[in-house]
Amino acid sequence: MVELSNKIAAMITFEELEEIIEVVKNLHGYDVSGYTRSSLKRRVTRIMELNKLDLVELKSKLINQPGFSTYLLQEITVNVTEMFRDPEFYKALKNDVFPYLETYPHIKLWSAGCSTGEEVYSLAILLKEAGLYQRSFIYGTDINTKVLEKAKRGIYSLAKVKDYSENFIKTDPKSSLSEYYTAMYNAATINNSLKKNVLFSQHSLVSDRVFNEFQLVTCRNVLIYFDTNLQEKVLDLFYNSLCHLGFLCLGSKESLINYKNAAKFKVINKKHNIYQKIA
C-alpha cells in the first residue's frame, strides 16, 4: 500500500488535479476550484489509493460510473468533528454571547459545514442548559448528504460519546451529558427533545445563497480548506446572513484579519474568534 501511495502521489501533478476539478465542475456542476490545492491533492490521492486507481481510471469513473462523483465529493468534503470540541470556546459562547441572545424573543442559529451533527447538538445542549432552547431554532447544513443522514439520526458510538463527556465537563455544565442521550448496547441516541428545534439540510457554501437571517452563525474549521478568494466569498455570505448585532464564530486557525469587511465586526473574543456584526 505504501508503494502504491508513493506511485500515485508521484503521478498526480497540480496540472492533472486541475483536470479533475474541471471534470467535476463541467459534468456534475460542483465547483471545488476554491479549495486549497494541497488539501485537494491529499484527498484525491487518498481516494485513488483506496480504490487502486490511476489518473486515467479516476477520470473514467467520474465520467462513466453513476454515483462515483457523489462518492468523490463526499470524501473531499468530510470534516473531523466532535461534541464540545474546544470546550473553552463553548464556555466563551455561554459567557460572551448568550447574554445577548437572551434579549431576542426568537433565536435562529446556523451551523455551517456541520458534518455529522455533533456541533449542532452541542449548541442545542448549551441552549437547553441556558433556558434558551424553546425559543431557538438551529439549522445544520453541509454539502455532504452522507454525513447529513447521520446527523439527522443523531446516533453515535457510545465510546465516542463518553469521550465527548470529558469535553462537556470542561464547559462547566449544570448537568451530565448522559441526560441528553439514551444508551443502548454500543450506541448513544440523542434525545428527541433536542431534535425538535433542529433542521439538517444540504447547502453549499461555494454556490448557494443566503437562506435566512440569523442571530448566530458558526463555521469552525471549514475555511482553512478554502483559498483566499473563496474565503472572502463565504465570509460575505455569513455577513449577509447575520442580523444587525448578530454573532459569527470561526475556528481556532481562522479569523477576519484579511476580510474586506472586518471593520464591520467587533471582536468579542479574540482567542476563540467570536465576532459581532456592528454595521
From TrEMBL:
Annotated source species: Sphingobacterium ginsenosidimutans
UniProt-listed PANTHER family: CHEMOTAXIS PROTEIN, CHEMOTAXIS PROTEIN METHYLTRANSFERASE
InterPro entries in UniProt: Bact_Chemotaxis_MeTrfase, CheR_C, CheR_MeTrfase, CheR_N, SAM-dependent_MTases_sf
Matching Pfam families: CheR (PF01739), CheR_N (PF03705)
Domain CheR-type methyltransferase stretches: 5-266
Protein name: Protein-glutamate O-methyltransferase CheR
Superkingdom field: Bacteria
